[in-house]
């Protein structure tokens, strides 16, 4: 039986096609650590993953999951904004950057990503990507601020230089409520 189509499945399939053992990856919004652990499984012991979150609860959650799965030697989890990721990696060295915009699953919904820092983080990430590197964005929206961030991110993504990056935006048109929007970026090789 196949898995139902979801943003998570689309994102993980895309990432798995591009990340290899030994790569350097970034989980820009660590949350509960599931994407961080997924990236660790792809890069293996020879690779490295940096994960960022501004919430201590998310950092603790991610570290606990990594320890449980035996990935604590592969990943470094930083209590820092994703907008500061350029301080942790050199330009042109990162194979994959993952974002989940919105709020911490099961956390306080009044604490959420903001368009200003999210766009700054995407801009920093674009510089960090190696040729052939990828970025995945999952835009969760709704509530009071989610629509504004969604609109700002989509507007910004339209301005990304098409000569260097391909940007693909997907939408679930027949899903109720506010289904997440997966976006995929590929830096030309």
Automatic annotation (TrEMBL):
Q: Identify the PANTHER family for this entry.
A: S-ADENOSYL-L-METHIONINE-DEPENDENT METHYLTRANSFERASES SUPERFAMILY PROTEIN, TRNA (MNM(5)S(2)U34)-METHYLTRANSFERASE, CHLOROPLASTIC
Q: Which Gene3D superfamilies match?
A: Vaccinia Virus protein VP39
What protein name applies here? Methyltransferase domain-containing protein
Question: One biological process GO term for this chain?
Answer: methylation
Residues folding into a coiled coil are none
Q: Which CDD domains match?
A: AdoMet_MTases
State one Pfam family annotation: rRNA_methylase
Molecular function (GO) terms for this protein are: methyltransferase activity
Q: State the InterPro entries in the record.
A: MnmM_MeTrfase (IPR010719), SAM-dependent_MTases_sf (IPR029063)
Keywords assigned: Methyltransferase, Transferase
Species name: Candidatus Anaerotruncus excrementipullorum
């Amino acid at each position: 039986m196949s898995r139902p189509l979801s943003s998570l499945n689309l994102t993980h399939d895309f990432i798995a096609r591009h990340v290899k053992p030994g790569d350097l990856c970034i989980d820009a919004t660590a949350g509960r650590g599931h994407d961080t652990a997924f990236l660790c499984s792809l890069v293996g012991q020879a690779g490295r993953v940096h994960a960022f979150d501004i919430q201590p609860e998310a950092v603790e959650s991610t570290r606990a999951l990594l320890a449980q799965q035996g990935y604590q030697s592969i990943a470094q989890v930083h209590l820092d904004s994703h907008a500061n990721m350029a301080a942790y990696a050199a330009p042109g060295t990162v194979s994959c950057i993952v974002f989940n915009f919105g709020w911490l699953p099961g956390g306080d919904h009044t604490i959420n990503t903001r368009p200003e820092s999210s766009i700054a983080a995407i801009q920093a990430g674009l510089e960090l990507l190696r040729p052939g590197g990828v970025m995945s964005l999952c835009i969760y929206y709704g509530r009071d601020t989610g629509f504004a961030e969604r609109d700002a991110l989509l507007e910004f993504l339209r301005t990304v230089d098409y000569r260097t990056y391909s940007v693909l935006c997907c939408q679930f048109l027949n899903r109720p409520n506010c289904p997440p929007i997966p976006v995929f970026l590929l830096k030309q090789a």
